[in-house]
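Can anyone check this?
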Amino acid sequence: MSWTERGPDALPELLDGITASSWRWEAQGDYSAIDGELLARWRAGLGRDPEADRSWIDYVQRLRARGIPFQRVRVLTDPLTEYLRCQLDVSYMNVDQAGEDIRWVEAATARELDMPDYDYYVIDNVLVAQLVFADDGQLGGVRLCRDEDVLQQHRRWRDVIWPYAIPHQEYIAR
């Protein structure tokens, strides 16, 4: 098993290279170091800035137009972090406008199913991209692996958690 270490600037390149599918596991519960401006707007009651998110919305729409799904599962901490409360309020743009399939799962369920405590992507079903966060919460790097055993484990985790993850609109409606 061999992992390749890349800097944080590798992530946009990886995402731009998606040809078939993207699936992300978000285990951190707080990404406010990366999404500080969004959190500040939410605290002020302003919600998302559609123009600030336009490039992401356009990107996911382009993927979807080519028939490429962009799926993610986010872990809900207990109690919810302020960041997750914000995301529950503002993820409608990702879902309704961009076409992402965002789902939510309780932390207890993730633990019961032995899900990892780190974030990762399965890209095109052939690459695992583990996100490595620095102590300050910023993205510190990306670890890449194409080893079949590693891929098999990460795809297994994806397939195990997906049926337990509640689609965003359904979760909000509760």
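Reply from J.R.: I decoded it. The chain has eight helices and eight strands.
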